[in-house]
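batch_manifest entry 22 of 60
target: Copper-containing nitrite reductase
source organism: Baia soyae
requested by: lab member K.T.
priority: normal
notes from requester: please return tokens only, no post-processing; we will run our own comparison against the previous entry in this batch. if the run fails, retry once and flag.
--- input ---
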Amino acid sequence: MSRDKQNGSDETLSSFFSRRKFLKAGIGSALGIAGMATWLFPKWVRSEGIATSNSHDHSNHGGSGMDHSGMDQVHAMNKKASPNAYQSAQQALTTFDYGKVSKLPDGRTLREYTMLAQDNEIEVAPGVFYPAWTYNGTAPGPTIRATEGDLLRIKFDNGSAHPHTIHFHGIHPGNMDGSFEIVQPGKSFTYEFTAEPFGLHLYHCHSMPLKKHIEKGLYGAFIIDPKEPRKKMKELVMVMNAFDTDFDGENEFYTVNGLANAFLDHPIPLKVGEEVRIYLVNVTEFDLINSFHLHGNMFKLYRTGTSLTHYEITDTVMLCQGERSVLEFSYKFPGKYMFHAHQSEFAELGWMGLFEVTE
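--- output ---
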């Protein structure tokens, strides 16, 4: 980049930078996520409507004097995300929306949900805020959970400035698919269908342009439990996503549950021998695949979660957008264990966490 452009151009950030150029130059590793974000988003970018960091202090971001070994390459952050941002990621990890439950005359269970599309700003990395489109105010949206055979009734209110829908993966009538029933701003639509088949599914907006509506944050996990419940375990939901904060068609940050390095800053506590089940969903836009790699262990991999018996044993799974899997494991030894994308670029840009295993 020429010096005159750096000092005076009013072109958008995407004219100069891509995340891959930064990583090839070693800048991403030298600065860490928050440092890179601060360096990437100077004050003049605000006039372009681009997601920005709320800090512009460059004094701690020079490459000299920084330890380039181990975790410092990946996590040389100069501050933490806000408590609200971490709380949102944590809520997505462990909270399930079972709806308002009642019984129908035929004995079936009716579950009623309310979903609201909203335009609101969310923190996607420490100090970096993004103008998202959300379900119920978060990206990902709430994890919808039901049992196979339940009747689901989802009232969708569009409080956004844009037309939206909800498309649920699974089996349902064509007029409940969320592809053609476009809900205009200020309008509502009620989806009603039987929950089937059991497994791990997802939902997302299906309005055009589809890639924009998904990348902006309109998605979530959708779990249908089998009628005979799975074995009781500690259950975690991980929705792999990413954010294009300069709107150039490439992602700047990769996350689980919407916040870069949320579970690196706040490791997930486990006990030795504790059985863990992860519901893993990939909704990453712009990149063909995303992945999950577990350190110091192997897991049973149930693809789509539609079988209770057919699985493979591995420590890494690759998923394209819309793919999902159920992972089950327990740790034999205490210690800190990483989990992260096995695309190193994604890991360096926020998709990394820790399990802290104790006796």
